[in-house]
UniProtKB/TrEMBL annotation:
InterPro entries in the record: Cyt_P450, Cyt_P450_CS, Cyt_P450_E_grp-I, Cyt_P450_sf
Name of the protein in question: Cytochrome P450
Residues at which heme binds: C493
Similarity comment: family membership: Belongs to the cytochrome P450 family.
Organism field: Chlorella ohadii
Lineage of the species this protein comes from: Eukaryota, Viridiplantae, Chlorophyta, core chlorophytes, Trebouxiophyceae
One Pfam family recorded for the sequence: p450
């Protein structure tokens, strides 16, 4: 009897692994042949997620279906189909192994929210990201870049190689952490000490502790638990998979849980402090809503900052100061209200969304410039024509940097740090490219494949910033809608202006002082995709001062 049961179990598992019913429903959509049980996971893991998507685009495009285990994903690299996907549905499916407070903390994150709370949350983010409010962060950004110039000085003097991706990560963390919480992060000053698990629970500033857990989060995301793959292999058993993962956590998952818990605890502490110190009038909104001048000197750096910090208030103009007034507001007619945990998730979410994405984008730009000395020379000429090397750029100077902006955009094309935009097909399903896609299907736009498709880009593998220089012959050839590094539609990246401003001001500040040469052996660049797509082994360069004397590094010391 036992033998029969075992044999029956094996037979059922074998049958299940072919997913006959689901595969039948998607048989009309072309795509790579799925293997038993694991679908196309093996190819994605061996070739790399973005590389596999680009290959499938070439073979089966413009729309195809691949299988994450038992889960069908309909993907496209076509700008028209992509627009239909990103503009209409706002939902996407999220898998999470977390339970309890950590789960609630995570599910409140704007990137993951699907329900009624998304709209209210997006409204709360909006004031900080209006065109005029974003510009007010220019001084924070340029000063952080100048700190990076100073940080790189010893390596430049001694000819020591550096991993510029890591260094840029310290800088972008400085920017987003400070902008989000209104607390000085000073990650560049603290350098390596900032990262890693040793920070957790020890006596450090809240910012140090946040940096420690964000680093752990990025290191462990996706690797934290091999059980994660079970979500895709057995999607019907979501509850059991969660239970298993938490009952027997792997060492990495334990670290990930600890990192997330710290993120929640420290984030909530900072929010509670700031909320308690918030004046009843709610005039914290001033920093964002006054906006408009478009000049430099952000409120986040004015004299009132130090005083308000001592009182535990959120610094005027910081993201947190604009989000706090939303606490207590009702969420539609759901009966729930936004609370302090929600606010803590948003401020931490700001760091998670804006830290690695921007660091990757900048590191990729420097990689591309190092490989293209003629483009680098054009960039240097633009900077030298603009002003003396000790001048810090501000938002008001952005019009003087069309080529620097184009260099940043062209690397976003070749190496988009967020390689896909993700949605779910709405109730009743939808028609895509003439095909019927059933309700609830995971939809993805492969930004990476679209950006490298020869149908839309001539010489797609080449780094040609001129494609983004207005009025150039190369720009005339660009297919409208084929460039979407920040996604599109209602859920388009809210931080795209912030990231572009930071990217350009950083490039200007760095290349005023230095050029960078790649250490050998880094071509072709190996990519790694988890939460974002970045260089798998960092980007190793030597740093070469362009001149003696003047330096924005001195500005950073002021
Ligand atoms: C170069 C840097 C960045 C890139 C390439 C990038 C890219 C993206 C992409 C592709 C999406 C998904 C859009 C979609 O599904 O249509 C996204 C969403 C988002 N990004 Fe960014 N991002 C960057 C920087 C930032 C920064 C600096 C912030 C904020 C500080 C930010 C905040 C967000 C948020 C909050 C969302 C979710 C929006 C929502 O679901 O409503 N991003 N980003």
């Amino acid at each position: 009897m036992v033998l029969e049961l075992v044999l029956l179990g094996i037979a059922l598992l074998i049958l299940y692994g072919f997913h006959p019913i689901t595969r039948w429903r998607f048989r009309h959509i072309a795509g790579p042949r799925p293997a038993w049980l694991v679908g196309n996971l093996a190819e994605m893991l061996s070739k790399g997620q973005v590389e596999a998507a680009a290959r499938w685009g070439q073979l089966y495009g413009p729309i195809w279906c691949f299988w994450l285990g038992a889960v069908p994903v309909v993907m496209t690299d076509d700008p028209h189909i992509a627009r239909k996907i990103v503009v209409r549905p706002v939902r996407h499916k999220i898998y999470s192994l977390h339970v309890g407070d950590e789960e609630r903390f995570e599910s409140n994150n704007i990137v993951f929210i699907n329900h009624a709370m998304w709209k209210e949350t997006r409204n709360a983010w909006q004031p900080f990201f209006s065109p005029s409010a974003v510009l007010k962060n220019d001084e924070l950004m340029a000063r952080s870049a100048a700190k990076l110039v100073r940080h790189l000085a010893p390596a430049a003097q001694q000819g020591q190689p550096v991993d510029v991706w890591r260094e840029l990560g310290l800088m972008t963390m400085d920017v987003v952490g400070t902008a989000a919480f209104g607390v000085d992060f000073n990650t560049l000053e603290k350098g390596k000490a900032a990262g890693g698990q040793q920070q957790l629970g020890s006596v450090h500033t809240p910012a140090d502790r946040l940096v420690g857990c964000v680093n752990d989060f990025f290191e462990l995301f996706g690797l934290g638990n091999p059980l994660f793959a079970l979500f895709f292999l057995f999607p019907e058993c979501e509850r059991w998979v969660k239970w298993l993962a938490n009952a027997w956590p792997t060492p990495n998952f334990k670290r990930e849980i600890a990192a997330r818990r710290q993120l929640r605890i420290v984030g909530t502490e900072l929010v509670q402090q700031a909320h308690a110190a918030m004046p009843a009038t709610g005039d914290h909104n001033d920093g964002g809503s006054k906006g408009g001048s478009g000049g430099s000197s952000s409120a986040a750096h004015n004299g009132t900052g130090a005083a308000s910090r001592q009182r535990g208030e959120a610094r005027p103009g910081s993201f947190l100061s604009l989000v706090l007034p939303f606490i207590g507001r009702p969420v539609g007619d759901t009966g729930t209200r936004l609370d302090e945990l929600w606010a803590a998730t948003q401020a931490s979410g700001f760091i998670l969304a804006g830290y690695e994405t921007t660091a990757n984008a900048l590191a990729f730009t420097m990689y591309c410039l190092a490989l293209n000395p003629d483009k680098e020379a054009k960039l240097l000429a633009e900077l030298d024509a603009w002003g003396p090397p000790n001048r810090l750029p501000s938002a008001a100077d952005m019009d003087s940097f069309p080529y620097a902006t184009a260099c940043f955009q062209e690397s976003l094309r070749l190496y988009p740090p967020a390689a896909a935009a993700v949605r779910e097909s709405p109730a009743g399903g939808m028609q895509l490219g003439g095909l019927n896609v059933p309700e609830g299907t995971a939809l993805q736009v492969s930004i990476f494949a679209m950006h490298r498709n020869p149908k839309y880009w001539s010489n797609p593998e080449a780094y040609i910033p001129e494609r983004f220089v207005e009025g150039s012959p190369e720009a005339a050839e660009v297919t409208p809608g084929a460039f979407m590094p920040f996604g599109d539609g209602a859920r388009k990246c809210i931080g795209y202006r912030f990231a572009t401003l930071e990217g350009v001001l950083t490039l200007v500040t760095l290349y005023q002082q230095y050029t960078f040469k790649l250490l050998p052996g880094q071509q072709p660049l190996k990519l790694k995709t988890s939460l974002t797509t970045g260089p798998a082994n960092g980007i190793k360069v030597t740093v070469h001062p362009r001149r003696q004397g003047y330096s924005t590094a001195e500005v950073a010391e002021e």
